[in-house]
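Quarterly update, task 2.4: glutamine-bound model.
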Amino acid sequence: MNIFKYSAIELNKSFVKGLISAEDIVIAHINKIINEDKYGAFLYIAKEEAIQAAKALDKKRKNGEKLGRLAGVPIAVKDNISVKGMPMTCASHILENYIAPYDATVIEKIKEEDGIIIGKTNMDEFAMGSSGMNSAFKTIKNPLDIAKSPGGSSGGSAVAVAANMVPLSLGSDTGGSVRQPASFCGVIGFKPGYGKISRYGLTAFSSTLDTIGIFARSLSDIKLFYQCLAAEDDKDQTSWKSTKANNYLEFNKDNKKLIYIKEMLEYCSIDMKENFIKYKKALSKKGMDIEEISLPEIKYSLPAYYVISSAEASSNLARFDGVKYGMSLREVKDIDSIYKLTRSKGFGDEVKRRIIIGNYVLSKEGKEGYYEKALAVKNHIKSAFKEILQYNTALISPCTTDIAFNIHDPKKVTDFYGMDQLTVPANLAGLPAISIPIGYIKDMPIGVQIITSQEEILLEFAQAIEESKGVTNYER
Ligand code: GLN
């Protein structure tokens, strides 16, 4: 048996039945990472910690104690989420030697469910980027073709699942950082609606848009992991209870309606567009009709996202000042020089760019022209989506505008920003969204994005879409 291809559910079953020990599962996965991570997916491998946790779990099973839903499952965690006693660098020099002193709420939940954290994954610095190339330590590569980007910013977490190093991983999604790398690497990437999973212990990038998200190779694993993590949390005032909402009760499985926004296709490469049109036709043949709608304002999502996220980033990153956390460069003794030196050496170019944009849009002259307009766009997108996505309706689109790009192809900063065009609207609207692999273009995977008003509805649609895999050229 090849346990690396097991889903989390299968691994858990084998462990519970006593077919394999947690220690064996953990050692096998750790060795695989040590021997095979030529993709740069991991920044820290928690060998000692994971083996210790596995031994304790084996004892628990032997003693006949009640086991959690993730018992025996190795899980990788993006390096912007706090795990007590492990490094948390956010892939930045400024936090290079920082050890997290507490567990994020999601980590507490994983531990309560007997999941085992086996490492911290590489990412774009402070979750800013779409390429895996903004890590201060090493560029992340796509396991399907190492000349290509795995996407970002949660590139390491996507690669860890795609290369069968773990069945489950955690990422964060502020404007697409779970869905885009999932699409580039051929796995499922799910971000719940805003506030459904506690952000306590996630290093803030843009607090009103950030969500913790999940990678897995099967939808059943996504459902299981989401159920383990979603909860209201006293430590995160924006978190709220994920009970089945009223509109779920009115959800009619047999009467699902799919729509797509025609303007979203305008950003896609010819290949992506053609593939989506083919896919749409194939779905219709299977009885899932898709209606075209127009929402021209969707084009303002991207600029609004970059204004809001940079504004919040500039304020959130002010805490990294060379005094409170991590790196502290004190060649010159006055406080201003400590700030300046630490921040100039500690942050990479992309992070500095966001801080500068953020400071400008929050300044007296930038506020009216940019920040306030961006907030108005956010509110508008939110209400437009609310109106569109009632009851049985889901919005589908390609997840990305093109397939994974070559790492060495020259690109402008704005080319990278443009890649988020199709994913940012869900964050602005605060809605759940998922990317599911539906096929290949030029041997690279592509994903379809689904957005709905509510998680349970999203997962119902995802199930239907997944069952229709056969409608496209799923094989590589
Ligand atoms: N690529 C987007 C950005 O750079 C999204 C990042 C994210 O979702 N964390 O801001």
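Highlight for this quarter: The CA atoms of residues 49 and 80 lie 18 Å apart.
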